[in-house]
Amino acid sequence: MREIDKENLKVNKYIDHTLLKPDANTDAVKIVCGEAKEYDFASVCVNPSFIEFVAKELRGSGVNPCCVVGFPLGATMPEVKAYETNRCIEVGAKEIDMVANIGAIKNGDWDLVERDIESVVKSSAGRALVKVIIETCLLKEEEMIKVCRLAKSAGADFVKTSTGFSTGGATKEDVTLMRGVVGEKMGVKASGGVRSYEDAVTMIEAGATRLGTSSGVSIVRGLKGSSSY
């Protein structure tokens, strides 16, 4: 566990304020953008259809527009993820949270996993940060280690625990493992189940440098939130 200065912890700058629910509409996204600007979060993370709107809402704020790619299953082809990444960046995305091909990981098809990640990294071409969601709740430890190594070698900026749409979210044990594999320079994002200030501190102490959550406002107020993705 890392030692952190809780008195001076700017937890807001760890938070990717997230709205990925299937019934989200423009009004809800606008509220999330307003909250992110008010609390100076790291980013607002949405589905691709909202990223252009989010980019306009956040312009000049210092909060990055972020969107998911290949979400939530990661089962689309590398070429499709590359195209989706490029289009999202063209309309304003500064951060891309891609879902790795979980089926390929479970099959041990590491060539496909590598091509999958590389397709998004190359498509971003330095224009946006790339976070690779590995869905830790579905993986064995050796699978987590392997995919983290591939994400690092492919040039991704972060590895990320979860979509929040599978069987479980972030755990401090998984975050600690991921941090140990990728080293100190690469980002680690804990996502899924981060609902309170105490949850946030636990994940940061374990090695997280970003937190994916829909409870960002509650976290910065030190209160328990209602949901997280």
Nutshell version of this structure?
The chain is an alpha/beta fold. The protein is built from 9 helices and 8 strands. β2 (43-46), α2 and β3 (64-69) form a beta-alpha-beta unit.
Task: Describe the structure using short key phrases.
229 residues; alpha/beta; TIM Barrel; eight-stranded parallel barrel; globular
The average pLDDT is 95
- Helix vs. strand class: alpha/beta
Give the number of domains. Answer: 1
What is the CATH level 1 assignment?
A: Alpha Beta
What fraction, in percent, of the residue positions are helical?
40-55%
| Low-pLDDT segments | none
Proportion in β-strands: 15-25%
Silhouette: globular
Helix/strand order, N-terminal first: EHEHEHEHHEHEHEHEH
Oligomeric status: single chain
Q: Strands of the largest sheet, in order across it?
A: 1-2-3-4-5-6-7-8
Q: How many H/I helices?
A: 9
CATH superfamily: Aldolase class I
User: Cα-atom Rg, whole angstroms?
Assistant: 16 Å
The major sheet is characterized as:
8 strands, parallel, barrel
* Total strand segments: 8
> Under CATH, the topology is which?
TIM Barrel
Gap between N and C termini, in Å? Answer: 23 Å
Q: Which architecture per CATH? A: Alpha-Beta Barrel
Protein architecture, described:
Helices cover 42% and strands 16% of the residues. The protein is of the alpha/beta class. It has an 8-stranded parallel β-barrel, surrounded by 7 helices.
